[in-house]
Structure formats: C-alpha cells, structure tokens
TrEMBL record:
<dbReference type="GO" id="GO:0016810">
    <property type="term" value="F:hydrolase activity, acting on carbon-nitrogen (but not peptide) bonds"/>
</dbReference>
<dbReference type="InterPro" id="IPR032466">
    <property type="entry name" value="Metal_Hydrolase"/>
</dbReference>
<protein>
    <submittedName>
        <fullName>Hydroxydechloroatrazine ethylaminohydrolase</fullName>
    </submittedName>
</protein>
<feature type="domain" description="Amidohydrolase-related">
    <location>
        <begin position="55"/>
        <end position="437"/>
    </location>
</feature>
<dbReference type="InterPro" id="IPR006680">
    <property type="entry name" value="Amidohydro-rel"/>
</dbReference>
<keyword id="KW-0378">Hydrolase</keyword>
<dbReference type="InterPro" id="IPR011059">
    <property type="entry name" value="Metal-dep_hydrolase_composite"/>
</dbReference>
<dbReference type="InterPro" id="IPR050287">
    <property type="entry name" value="MTA/SAH_deaminase"/>
</dbReference>
<dbReference type="Pfam" id="PF01979">
    <property type="entry name" value="Amidohydro_1"/>
</dbReference>
Amino acid sequence: MALVVDNADVITMDAVTGSEPVTRSIRIEDGVITEIGATVTVNDGDTVLDGRDRLVTPGLVNAHTHSWEALYKGRYDNLPLELWMLYSYPILGVDPLPEDVVRLRSLLFAIESLESGVTTIVDDVLETPGQSASQLAAVFDAYEQTGIRANVSGHVINRPFIDTLPFVTQWLPDDIVRDVRGQATVTAEEYLDYSRTAFAAHDRSAGGRLRYMLAPSAPQRCTPDLLAGATALAVEYDAECHVHVLETRTQAVTAQVDYGRTFVEYLRDIDALSPNTTFAHGIWLTDSDIDIVAEHGVCVSHNPLSNLKLGSGLAPWRTYHDKGVTLGLGTDGCSSSDTPRLLEVAKSAALVHKITDPDPETWPKVGEVLAAATTGGARSARLGETVGSLEVGKRADFLVYDLTTLAFTPRSRLDHQWVYSENGGSLEYVYVDGRCVVDHGRITTVDRDGILRELREAMPRIAEWQNKLDELNGVLHEPFARMYRESLTHPVPVNRWAG
C-alpha cells in the first residue's frame, strides 16, 4: 500500500518551485515518490496523512560531520583547530575504541541527527590511531538499525601528524618527535585495498541507503600517491572523495612553506581533483583556487558553526556562488560545533555572511541556504539523483512540520521561518525511504531509552579515558600554541577571517 500526504504546504526544492512553498499532495510507493501535484491517486488501503496545517520539506543533508566527536560534545572551548585537534584527536597514548563504544557513539549521533530532521549524513569517520574493519562495520550496523541515510568513510592520515604542521618540530622534545614519527602509518596501496574491501562489504547496503566513501584527511596529512589513488578509486566506484582543504590560516601557511603553492594548486598538479571530490571547509582559497574548484566540478561543504567556534575564518560564500560551485552545509563534529542539528548551521550561514560585506546584494538568500542544506549537500554526496528534493522518482526522505506551533505563528513566509524561526520543536514526522523513523520527536527504529541508558553507564570509563588522554597530550599544547602564533606572522594570499 502507498502513503499519501494530502494537501500540505510543500517546499519541494526542485528546479521549478525551489524554496517557494506551494500546496501539493504527494504519493509514495515502495519508498519512492511516484506522484506529486495538486491531486494524486488515492486507492483503498492507502495510508493518508492529512496535510492541513503542515509543512512538508525534503530531509536535511549534513554534508560534513564526524561521529567520533559525539563523545566529546561540549568538552572544549577557545582553542584554534590545531590545538583543539590535540585533544579531540589525540596523537599520544590513544588505544583503539572497542566496537561496542563505536556502536553506541554511532547510534547516539544518528538518533540526534534524525530527531532534528537530518535524514542524510556524510560521516567522515576518523578512528584514532586507525580504523579497523570491525570498527567500520560497527558504524554501518548502527546506521542500518536507525534507518538513517549515510555516506561513511574510511578516513586516513598516512603522514606523521607533527610533520603536517609548519615550524612545530623545532619546539618539540626529541623523544616525542621520535615517538610520533615511529607510529605506524598505512601505505597508499594498503588504504586502497582496505577501501576496495569496504566497498564490497558495505557500499549500497541497507537497500542502498548506506554508502562507503574515500576520505584522505587533507593534502598535508596524506602522501600524494594516496590522494591521487583515492580520487581515482572514488571515480571508479562513483563514490564521494571527502578531503579537508584549507580550513585554517595555519594550513594556508603550511601550503606556502612546505609546498610552495596553494593546496588547491597542489591537488590539481597531482591529479587529485574530480567531480566526486568534496572539500570540507574550503575557507582560505584564493580566487584562482576557486576557479580551479569550479573547473574540476569540486563541491564544498560549508561549516560555519565549527569555523566560528574554532576561529578558523569564513568561507567565501558569494564567490563560490558566483563561480557556480556547489555548496553543501555541514555541522562538522560535535566537539567543534557541539551539535548535529543542521538547522542551526543553516541559520548561522544565513546570518554570518551579512557582516562580511556591507552590500546586501551579496548576502545569502534563504533559497540559497536551503539549497545548500538539501540539494547541494545531496550533490556533494553523489546522491543528487536520489535525495535532496521532493520529485517523482526520488527516494521519499522528507520532514513534516506542525504549522500551528509558536515557531510558525503568525504564519508568514514559511521558507524564511524554516531557516530563522524553527528550532526543531515543530518537527512532527521524519521519513526515510518512505518509512517513518521519527514520530513526534522520538525515533521509532531503535530503543532510544535503552541506548541512552547504556551510554550513561559507559560514560564514567569513557570520561576517565578522555581525561588521561588530555593530560598526556597536554605536553604538546605550548609547542603547538607557539606554532600557531608563529603562523600568524607569515603572509598568506587572502584574509578569510572576514569571509
């Protein structure tokens, strides 16, 4: 039997109506939208959802996040990225997380994502000190249980972390330099073999909801053969290749000092750019870099909340749009933004760029922000033909909001209120593949209370583990802080603290 949403206010995000609300009915069969229009077929036995006083939208797409950080929510503040990584991704003394903790962490992240209207996540899963096949399987298993749609990565760093930053080794004790450089790293071929195995085991699992993606961490953190090989393998499997590029001013300095060019130029020169590539962050790019991005069809995930908290700068929103670059929106991880709630990111993206240029013609438009939160994120995830808009033939990932709530009272421009007014309290239902996975704020697919109880019981030992790592890695704080201050004295081609 089919599901019919009857006579609702609908934001389709399609090429015709875009973010403009229209009155529509929608018919869904076997998880696919089969009709959408003023009227649709209703047969005996169909389930009909009355659309009166309801807003129906596409599910939100979180185009860049890290579920590892779900265990670090609210833990750190006032740290620039390079110092923050010492604690959120410690390089000294960390043992692999057991699969049961990985499973709990992933379930927690999926639950909060779904209950806030995020139906698709691009989860750049970084396990420290490295990702095992069983850890990766635990993430996929958790996401299969919850019903979320996800791209899940094998995130990889194959250069010693202290060698990915400028200046810092001169201020580190010799024994720590030896320790970090002595840590095992994978070769490019080992990572590509791991990824081929992961594709065979997990890609397009759960009826196509779950996909594996390549994730070479960043140009400075991976060898050129790994970067180029991951790019080629992503194209071979029609998968996303997710790379952190020029997130901070320090990284712009690293590019100039260690590579003699920008990182975008470097990636172009080693054949590590393609339409399958997504840059996470993409802040400290020059105008010519953005030309290269546009020429190669690269997408960019914009993460303003994380960038603001870490003081990283602001991506050049209007320049990207003017040059035709597809933008998605991402929360980044729960240690750098403290939330997987994409509507918070959408509101910050709509607002923060209004103070970077006095010309209101350059400010983000609500339709652009909503496109980044839906269709743009879907395209960056290689899912543009599958989700992101409400159209015949696409999977039925959609949200139903109650329009009688305070957030939508008085009822005005619904697209504006979705971005600026709604805080999640109006969300009534969340559907993925035509299946109701959230009903009045509660996930329906897993035992929410049991999972949270299990996590609460585990948190004392997790917190003890985190505290020990903080203390152990704190020895690196002052050398890294000195490196950060030294980087501020070096010129870079652009000023992206102004966006």
